[in-house]
Amino acid sequence: MHTRFPRADARQFDAAHFRQALSQFATGVTVITTRLADGTLLGLTASSFNSVSLDPPLVLWSLGSKANSMPVFSGNSHYVINILSADQAHLAQQFASKMENRFEGVAYTLSRTGQPILEGASAWFECHNRSQYPEGDHVIFVGEVEHCEADPQAALVFHGGRFIKTGDL
Length: 169
Fold this sequence. Notes:
This protein is mainly beta.
C-alpha cells in the first residue's frame, strides 16, 4: 500500500538546512557492489541502508535517480551490500569518488552469483534486486537477501560529515 498525503505548505525549503539536520543522524556506511555481464565491476558508497523484513529477509538502500550507475543497478538482477568495518574509511572514500575504476587495489571475492564481496567488511548481504520505487530525487531499492555473512568487529559510522569508528564511542 502506497499512500501519499498532500503537502501542508508549499513554502521554499532550505536544502542546506535539511542536509545539516540529517547529518546529526549517525549511520553505518556501506558499499553496494555489482558485476555486469561482461565482468565489469561497479560499486558505490551509500549510507541509506535499512532492514525491511525478516520474513522474507528484505533490506533497502537508495540511489540518486540521476546517478550514472542507475541503469546498471536498476537493470542487474543481484548486488551485494557490504557493511564497512572501522578500518575501511578509505574504501568509503574510494567508492564515493569519481575515479573510473573504483575497484583498483581493492581486495574482494565473488559471491555465489558472481557479485563482488569486499574483503574485511564487517557484514555483507547478497541480494536479489526485488523491487524499485522512485521517490523524490532518489530510487529506493528493495533487495531480497539470498545469503549473508557477518564478521563482528568495530563498524564505520558517518556522523556530522565525518567518519567515526564505533570503538571510539
